[in-house]
């Protein structure tokens, strides 16, 4: 995560059309980690799917219901189970009768810096989508694309009729995502990013930040950014001695909002664990060093 925290003035609770089949409603949960807030998406016109219903905030749920405006909801889909994405699924399902489908449930203790991103322990989908599974409604088809990395259960959803991809937190429109062990995995993240590069999507709709009109360019840039970070880490370690993560973050993330440094440290840890798996680093009493070739 490298962008400075700069919340822009976007209206929350307003249904904003983005394409013939896609609209969004912004939740009122801005933060250094969510940017302007979590974006919940509607797909369809006469029959809807709701993607990432967001936090269990009464005002946001009311805004979703206002946007639905009595139309039938075929499915409520969640990309992953962080608390800014999935909790509103339960009250929305109760109000609409729609099934909750998408990612698998996942609950574990999260010792990372994001209190708002702890896993939703009450997420209980009616149906879990595997990679390539589809759900359809009037005029639209959504296909699950497995993208583990940010979390092990992360899914993206491809809107086949518009060659669009709802990317959740895997690709965001304002910053790189946090990869936080033990569930977040850098090797999985890189494989998932390469998978997106190999696709032919025309636009990404992230849960945070603006739509991405040149998606493969951004995905390649994010992979290059991660490789750059890996190189920085290796240079730190190869300079001699053992190094603490906090020292690496202080040097590598100069100029970044200090509130983001703990989250950056989680991604640095993910890189170190990946390098350790590849036999390039080792850890001793909270400090890391390079492994001699």
From TrEMBL:
Residues 37-208 form the Metallo-beta-lactamase domain. Keywords: Hydrolase. Pfam families: Lactamase_B, WHD_BLACT. It comes from the Bacteria. One of its GO terms (molecular function) is hydrolase activity. InterPro entries: LACTB2_WH (IPR041516), Metallo-B-lactamas (IPR001279), RibonucZ/Hydroxyglut_hydro (IPR036866), Sec-metab_biosynth-thioest (IPR050662), WH-like_DNA-bd_sf (IPR036388). Gene3D superfamilies: Ribonuclease Z/Hydroxyacylglutathione hydrolase-like, Winged helix-like DNA-binding domain superfamily/Winged helix DNA-binding domain. PANTHER family: ENDORIBONUCLEASE LACTB2. This is MBL fold metallo-hydrolase. It comes from Sphingobium algorifonticola.
